[in-house]
Amino acid sequence: MLSAVESDKFDTLTARTSEQIKAGLFTAPEVDKLKFTLKKGFKNGWSIKKMSDELDKSIKIKDRLALGEDGKLKLNDKGKPILRLSSKYRSMMIIRTEVTRTANNGALDNYRKNGIERVRWVASTGERTCPFCNSMDNTILPVNQAENMLPAHGMCRCTYVAIARLD
Ligand SMILES: [Zn+2]
């Protein structure tokens, strides 16, 4: 788990332009604080709630605003930015997503160490399952390809199941 946090670059959360910072993506120091919180949380067995409270204490998380195809903030007809997720809920969402991701990557690491070469994508199917996850349900993937695919989106509850070798 800890090494999975350490090697993670948090690509989808990291801002690369000033416009992305305005949209609420994280600066490099903020990503470091998130890593620190996750590592401390895993070490001490904190709940997701506790980790997100600690993250809120260490970073002033901004609202997540919509970005357009051009990389600029998307505006509505009144010229105002479009809210994607209020800062109030973001720490919980971010922690939950990152905990799931590091747990999945940690599991893949273990599978690899144990000679497992393939995994099966298991979607928690239901009303709230997105079309993409539904379409991936039961797909068999090589372990290396499976890395960083889960969670596929915020609040994704899909997991991998190891496929035992036949020999
Ligand atoms: Zn999913």
Question: What does this protein look like?
Answer:
The strands form two sheets. Strands 4-3-5 form a three-stranded antiparallel beta sheet. A two-stranded antiparallel ribbon has the order 1-2. It is mainly α and 167 residues long. The protein has one domain. The protein starts with a helix and ends with a strand. It contains seven helices and five strands; from the N terminus they run H-H-H-H-E-E-H-E-H-E-H-E.
How are the secondary structure elements laid out?
Layout: H1 2-7, H2 18-22, H3 28-44, H4 48-58, E1 64-65, E2 83-85, H5 87-113, E3 118-122, H6 131-136, E4 140-142, H7 143-146, E5 159-163
Antiparallel strand pairs: 1-2, 3-4, 3-5
Helix pairs in contact: 3-4, 4-5
Bound molecules: zinc ion.
Residues 123, 133, 152, 156, 158 line the site of zinc ion.
In a few lines, what is going on in this structure?
The protein has 167 residues and is mainly α.
Biggest beta sheet attributes: 3 strands, antiparallel
Number of β-strand runs = 5
Unreliable segments of 5+ consecutive residues:
none
What is the percentage of strand-forming residues?
A: 5-15%
Radius of gyration: 17 Å
**Roughly what is the average pLDDT, rounded to an integer?**
90
Question: What structural class should be given to the helix and strand makeup?
Answer: mainly alpha
Order of strands across the widest beta sheet? 4-3-5
Shape: globular
**Oligomeric organization of the protein chains:** single chain
Quote the distance from N terminus to C terminus: 29 Å
Overall tally of domains: 1
Helix % is 40-55%
Helix and strand pattern: HHHHEEHEHEHE
Bound molecules: zinc ion
**How large is the count of helical segments?**
7
